[in-house]
Amino acid sequence: MKEKTVYICSNCGQDSPKWIGKCPSCGEWNTYVEEVVRKPAAGTRLGSGLEPVKSKPVILSEITGGNEPRIDMHDEELNRVLGGGLVPGSLVLLGGEPGIGKSTLVLQTVLRLPEKKILYVSGEESARQLKLRADRIRPNSSDCLIACETSLEQIYVNIKNTRPDLVIIDSIQTISTETIDSSPGSLVQVRECSASILKFAKQTNTPVILIGHINKEGSIAGPKVLEHIVDTVLQFEGDQHYMYRILRSTAELGIYEMRQDGLRQVSNPSELLLSQDHEGMSGVAIASAIEGVRPFLIETQALVSSAVYGNPQRSATGFDLRRMNMLLAVLEKRVGFKLAQKDVFLNIAGGLKVNDPAIDLSVISAILSSNMDAEVERDTCMAGEVGLSGEIRPVNRIEQRIGEAEKLGFKRILIPKHNLQGMDTKKLKIEIIPVRKVEEAFRALFG
Ligand code: TYD
Ligand code: MG
Q1: What is the predicted pLDDT for the residue at 387?
Q2: Which ligand approaches the C-alpha of residue 124 most closely?
């Protein structure tokens, strides 16, 4: 065994034999941490102990079909977020804060897959705890195999003996390999173990779901480094105080509700995200938003009040604070509203985080509605991005947004004027109000 010290970037996982201030790979400063690594003598590299599927080069045109059969997870939200199901031989990372419901999601999913042989490796909970949780989710027993194990080598032995169709590892931070003398959860362990698991997944064509914890800052050893290794990254997010949970991949979004008996899929998010009675309330505006492929209506809530102390407070939940400040500056400069001495609080209903720029218009409408204490009519919704000069910029997939609003019984929708081009509005029952500038939107909303 040879012992050596390496320095590893805690942001991206790049290593270096000596400490450096700026990471040449990701450009972050002061991210290098010292780790002691004891490598085994050459020749005894990590191995899965399973005979690999031999590969030889093939002619591109002879490779059959681009659409590999996907494994149906029997969960519409999960299937969609995975892009149509789980790809055989892929390594999926499910990341999220502790307690958000990662183990619950995975366990309830594998309990729905009785035709598959599943090995659930838990380094966090005992078999009894898992059984209790499984009973809570669904009382009928399943033949899912449970292994409470933290040694990577032992996990491979278990895999070799049981030959599962799907492996779950809960969580990567508890697993360690004997070949490295570093504690579980350290950067080196996390990186080496996941690289080895990736190799196993590819060689045996067995899909593996890795669970990884992220702390509030998202900076703890693990998931950030892991993102470069795995095939797919899924984020499970939500507020501990809300029951909604969002499962996100780069392209898609799934919504769940945490119940006593596990997570329930939410197939019609709009109905949940609109609180029913805000009749006569100011500071509320409804946006027709799109995340992933699905349009949904969402409530933006604002509270504007005079700042008591010198510095006005600004806070945003579920919306980028810098973007909110930019929108406030637009209102101030272009429309002449005096908001500099006001506290502004913004909230997106349901604890949802929305990245869609089309909710800008509802954000400024909610802010002005609260500021003037004038209500936005209940049956009006909107979609539009706001530019720096106060112009309402066109948004993508406007037909879908209008369609969703119409489906939910809205009577009026404000849309960017540019989006009107080439649109057939004759068949629509909903009234379309095209707006070019922030001022026009205000006149339409508040008269
Ligand atoms: P868990 O899956 O253990 O979170 P993670 O694996 O991400 O750390 O979920 C923990 C929380 O979920 C816990 O506070 C209890 C709650 N919960 C329910 O509300 N309903 C349920 O059916 C289950 C199993 C858990
Ligand atoms: Mg867990």
Answers
A1: 95
A2: 2
Q: Which residues line ligand 1 (CB under 6 A)?
A: 96, 98-104, 133, 136-137, 258-262
The tokens 């510095």 sit on which residue? 311
Location of structure tokens 């020749």: 43
Atom of ligand 1 nearest to the CA of 258: 19
Low-confidence stretches of the chain (pLDDT beneath 50): 41-48, 219-221
pLDDT score, position 193: 93
Mutate to test the pocket of ligand 1, among 169, 258, 265 (most ligand atoms within 8 A of CB): 258
pTM value surpassing 0.90: no
- Count of beta carbons in the 10 Å neighbourhood of residue 318: 19
From the CA of 272, how far away is ligand 2's center (Å)? 26
Q: How far is CA 148 from CA 70, 124, 193, 284, 316, in A?
A: 28, 8, 17, 49, 42
| Ligand 1 atom nearest to CA at 136 | 22
Cβ density class 169-199: b for 16+ within 10 Å, e for less: bbbbbbbbbebbbbebbbbbbbbbbbbbbbb
pLDDT of 16 reads 87
**Residue 237 pLDDT:** 85
